[in-house]
Amino acid sequence: MICKSYDYFFTKFANRANLEIIFLLKSWPMNVKMIIEKTGREQSATSHNLKKLCDCNILKVEKRGRERFYSLNKETVLPILELVQKHIRKNCKGCKYA
Amino acid sequence: MICKSYDYFFTKFANRANLEIIFLLKSWPMNVKMIIEKTGREQSATSHNLKKLCDCNILKVEKRGRERFYSLNKETVLPILELVQKHIRKNCKGCKYA
DNA sequence: AATTCATATGATTTGCAAGTCATACGACTA
DNA sequence: TAGTCGTATGACTTGCAAATCATATGAATT
């Protein structure tokens, strides 16, 4: 069924921690330490999250020494976020969390 | 935090049953009975799902007698689905579910 | 070579969203 | 007005994704 891959993709965005990482990396690439500092979450949890985000190419990694720099796949992710923002602004005035 | 409303929105798409409904309603509006028939899922579950999808205006409802017709908010949802499809095709060749 | 630093990994636990079950409700029909 | 049809609702249960915990890895530094 086609829905599977969509589900798989959307799942990554349906998570506060992941979204925080994504929004954070809109500015510039960061290594794990920086990401942890900014988000205030656990190292291990963050590492798991980063892996999943890489799995479907929402993020990409680059190794430098013992650090790893994660960057956002802006080409496809930013336009999606824009459309979603548009929807939220237009349609979610009365919504629970908007 | 801004992420909340995004999370809330994306959660609706990160679910097989919901996605099936969304894709189904790309063709035309349907009442609950039709939706159940096509998806093969439980009436009660479907009703819960439909409610959530309406909550953030991914779907809208129209009452006709004792039936309720659900239709997709094509204006904002279709463009999002297209971009996501694009991402999946490009970036998820080797992904678990793509 | 031992230690520390940056990060990943695997196993386990846990929280919560989604499904189930039972029931309610309102609109139509006989 | 009793019954049934289409759908919603609320309480309860459950499955699974995400967080946690403990440990590993590999690269730098001493």
Which secondary structure elements does this structure contain, and how are they paired or packed?
The structure is a homodimer of 98-residue chains.
Chain A: H1 3-13, H2 16-24, E1 30-31, H3 32-39, H4 43-55, E2 59-64, E3 67-72, H5 74-91
Antiparallel strand pairs in A: 1-3, 2-3
The structure holds a DNA duplex (30 and 30 nucleotides).
Count of spatially separate domains of chain A: 1
Query: Mind describing the biggest β-sheet of chain A?
Result: 3 strands, antiparallel
- CATH class group of chain A: Mainly Alpha
Strand content of chain A: 5-15%
Order of helices and strands of chain A: HHEHHEEH
- What is the tally of helical segments of chain A? 5
Termini of chain A, distance in Å?
Answer: 32 Å
Strand order of the largest sheet of chain A: 1-3-2
CATH superfamily of chain A: Winged helix-like DNA-binding domain superfamily/Winged helix DNA-binding domain
Q: Which word captures the global form of chain A?
A: globular
For the largest interface in this structure, which chains are involved and how many residues does each contribute?
Answer: A-B, 40 and 40 residues
SS content category of chain A: alpha+beta
What is the CATH architecture annotation of chain A?
Orthogonal Bundle
